[in-house]
Amino acid sequence: MKTLLTGATGLVGANLAHLLCEQGERPRLLVRERSDRRGLRGLRYEEVLGDVLDADSLREAMKGVGRVYHVAGIVRFDPFTREDVSRINAQGTRNVLEAARAAAVRRVVVVSSVAAVGHGTLAEPATEDSGYNYAGDNPYHESKREAERLALAASGPGLEVLAGNPSFVLGPYDVKPSTGELLLLVAKGIVAAYPSGGINVVNAQDVARGLKLIMEKGRPGERYILGGENLTFRELLTLCAEEVGVTPPRLPLPDEVVKVVGKVGDVVGRLSPDLFKHVNTTFTQALPLPAYQSSAKAMRELGYQPRPVRLGIREALRWFQEEGMLPRDRPLTPRGVVG
Asked: Which Gene3D superfamilies does this UniProt record tie to the protein (predicted)?
């Protein structure tokens, strides 16, 4: 059965493409002409040029396909790119679903996010049944919620649709980089402080395995959180620092300072949205939160087994160094031991 994968040049998509190829598949990848393909180096795959916003390219890509992993999307939190975020994440998902139904595709797994679920505490982490409780107007969160709503509503006779909700993903093949930007900043020794909140962090390779399990075993119309470890930001930054061999940040960042930084970004970001995409109130208001989730449903129903996050950090740093994004002449000296 032919498999189509959108978003294959991104962090999650590239790790999924590697997994499918390692397990003997030769997937079809929908790739934009100018996309950076370094994360796909060495893989055997069938390439189709196109875009999730181009209905004609989707119709061509869907020919003979039995199942689809829709991973393509954009992660932006600044208010200046709201229309682009909505168009790519929500309308792009609608386009993929319509093309899949027209091509008689049997099963589609849409990659959503825990941003569409909500957040909880360590004592009561959020689950698939939790009510959405992020405050404020967040373009990315809203676009992922709408994309997931469209996906699960489309599931029915003739087309089974499921959603996977990864948390904060770290791992190799992060060509942009996206979340890996945090690792590179830590490696440069310029992260001296940590915010008061925390998040769920997961290995990119575990997310890929989780998505494949959803495809194989998931119940149509359901969503599954694909998380790893619930960590405070201090714990996460310490893990990153240990793996790269630098001093972990020791200075707590007061919540009031975080708010001020966000407000400054709201103003200055109008001049350079790309430079300030993570420095705005929409993004910084989540940093003090205990934003934790549970993967118990995926573990129980699918056999999903996330590994220590340290492994994903280690693999990401190794790949960054191989690609020259970290100095090759500076050996990584991980101090952490994976139990």
From this structure: NAD(P)-binding Rossmann-like Domain (3.40.50.720)
Write down the pLDDT at residue 300: 98
Find where tokens 């620092």 sit: 241
**Whose structure tokens read 């160094």?**
321
Residue 229 has pLDDT above 60, yes or no: yes
For the chain, how far is it from start to end, CA to CA, in angstroms? 38
Structure tokens that stand for 221 in this block: 């119309």
pLDDT at 282 > cutoff 90: no
Whether the CB-CB separation of 65 and 28 falls below 8 Å is answered with yes
d(CA 95, CA 110): 12
In angstroms, how far apart are the furthest CA atoms of the chain?
56
Backbone φ/ψ region at 189: left (φ over 0), alpha (ψ -120 to 50), beta: left
What's the rounded mean pLDDT across residues 222-244?
A: 96
Q: Which residues contact 134 (CB under 8 A, 6 or more apart)?
A: 115, 118, 119, 141, 286
- Name the DSSP class of 39: G
- Dist CA 269 CA 82 (whole Å): 14
pTM of the model: 0.95
**DSSP, res 131:** P
DSSP string of 62-103, one letter each residue? TTTEEEEEE-------SGGGHHHHHIIIIIHHHHHHHHHHHT
Block residue for tokens 């119940």: 219
Find, among 89, 87, 97, the residue nearest to 115 by Cα. Answer: 89
Q: Residue 335 pLDDT more than 80? A: no
